[in-house]
Amino acid sequence: MKNFIQTLLLLITISFSTMVLAQDNTNTSNGNSGHYKGVGQLNVGLGVGFNYGSAGFMADYEFLQLGQDFTMAAAVSYYGWDTYYAKYNTFGVGVRFRWYADRVLGITSNKWDVFASGDVGFGITNSNYHNGYDHHPSGSSVSPIYWGLGIGTKYHFNDKIGLHAIIGTGAQIGITFGL
User: Fold this and answer.
1) Cα–Cα distance for residue pair 28/41, rounded to 1 Å
2) What's the distance, CA 83 to chain centroid?
3) Are 73 and 58 in contact (CB under 8 A)?
4) Region label for 32, one of left (φ > 0), alpha (ψ between -120 and 50) or beta (otherwise)
5) CA nearest to 146, candidates 173, 121, 129
6) Residue range 101-124: average pLDDT?
7) Domains in the chain and their CATH numbers?
């Protein structure tokens, strides 16, 4: 657990250092700049977690430009899964950070976005144990922190609608809305 906390703190420190040092340059007029769509995008989709085969729903809204190519989004999720002895569901609330790699990769199309994402937040998990497992109390618990990492892409049909996909600590596929 100590190594996990140290690794998490290192990742958070690196993320914030990168965001602070990144210059806010939103001018995309030269041919080497990406044309990513970030702030003002609502991303909703179906997801699967790679633990216990959980499946659910995720949504995030990119509301803040943190620097060149970086956005922050408010995120919510709901996942459910069943094991041999119990049914679980988790409602998560947190933030999703995205680094759009369009500029770095030389992607100039306004149809495609490529990004890396990181999530941090907390979850409320409910457990309902099956008969025969009465020695485990059913109920709710709050996780102190959850995190996730991934890479993804968006394809924009136009400024108002597109598709997105993310793979990493889980997987998500869904629709992107420009608001």
Assistant:
1) 18
2) 25
3) no
4) alpha
5) 121
6) 92
7) 51-178 (2.40.160)
pLDDT given at position 132: 63
Give me the amino acid identity at 8: L
Read off the pTM: 0.74
**For the chain, the helix, strand and coil percentages under 3-state DSSP, each to the nearest 5:** 15, 55, 30
Average pLDDT estimate for 57-65: 94
> In the structure encoding, which two tokens stand for residue 8, read together?
């998490």
- What one-letter code names the amino acid at 49? G
Collapsing DSSP states into helix, strand and coil, what is residue 1? coil
DSSP reduced 3-state for 34? coil
State the amino acid at position 16 in one-letter form.
F
Burial profile 144-179: b = 16 or more Cβ within 10 angstroms, e = fewer: eebebebebbbebeeeeebebebebebbbebebeee
Q: Give whole-number Cα distances, 137 to 22, 89, 130, in Å.
A: 48, 15, 11
